[in-house]
Write a structure and sequence with these properties.
Layout lengths: L4 H14 L7 E6 L2 E6 L2 E6 L2 E7 L1 H18 L5 H29 L13 H32 L1
Antiparallel strand pairs: 1-2, 2-3, 3-4
Helix pairs in contact: 1-2, 1-4, 2-3, 3-4
Length: 155
C-alpha cells in the first residue's frame, strides 16, 4: 500500500538522486588554470563571485532525471510486491552503472588530477545513500509479502 514504510524509503531514494542537482560531485578542482566545481549537470566556474555553468552534461542530466523518477514509479506498483522487489534490485544495478558513469565523466574531465578528500563533494555519496534506501525498501516489501503469506495460510 502507498502508506507503508517502503514508500518512505523509495521516496528518500528518489530525493537522494535528485539532490545530485544541488550538491557537487567534486569541487575545488583546477582544470585549465581555474578552480571549477563539477556537478551532475555540468562544470561550474567561479566568475566574479558567482558559479556559472561553463560545460553542460545533457546525457548525464537526462539520465539523472530518469533514474530519480524510477523509485517513484516503483512506489505505485504496490499491488504487485514481487515486481516491486525485482524492480528494486534492477534499480540498484542501474544505480551502480550510473555511479560508474558519473565517476568516469569526472575522471575524463580532470585528466591527470588526483582527487583527495578535500575535492570530494556530497554528490559522490548520494548514489550510495540511494542504494541503501532501496535495500531498506526491499526489506520492508519482503516483510509485507511474508505477512500476506502468513495471513493467507490462516484463511
Amino acid at each position: 500500500m502507498i502508506q507503508r514504510i517502503q514508500s518512505v524509503w523509495l521516496l528518500l531514494a528518489s530525493l537522494a538522486i535528485f539532490a545530485l542537482f544541488f550538491f557537487p560531485i567534486a569541487h575545488g578542482v583546477y582544470i585549465g588554470g581555474s578552480v571549477k566545481t563539477i556537478k551532475v549537470d555540468g562544470i561550474y566556474e567561479d566568475i566574479n563571485g558567482q558559479l556559472l555553468r561553463t560545460v553542460s552534461f545533457l546525457a548525464l542530466t537526462i539520465a539523472t532525471i530518469v533514474i530519480g523518477i524510477l523509485p517513484l514509479i516503483i512506489i505505485f506498483l504496490y499491488k504487485n510486491r514481487k515486481q516491486q522487489i525485482a524492480l528494486g534490485y534492477s534499480f540498484m544495478l542501474v544505480l551502480v552503472g550510473f555511479s560508474f558513469w558519473m565517476s568516469q565523466t569526472v575522471k575524463g574531465i580532470a585528466e591527470g588530477i588526483t582527487f583527495g578528500t578535500n575535492n570530494m563533494g556530497i554528490g559522490i555519496f548520494l548514489s550510495s545513500v540511494s542504494i541503501v534506501f532501496v535495500l531498506l525498501a526491499i526489506r520492508a516489501i519482503k516483510s509485507d509479502e511474508k505477512l500476506i503469506k502468513s495471513a493467507d495460510r490462516l484463511r
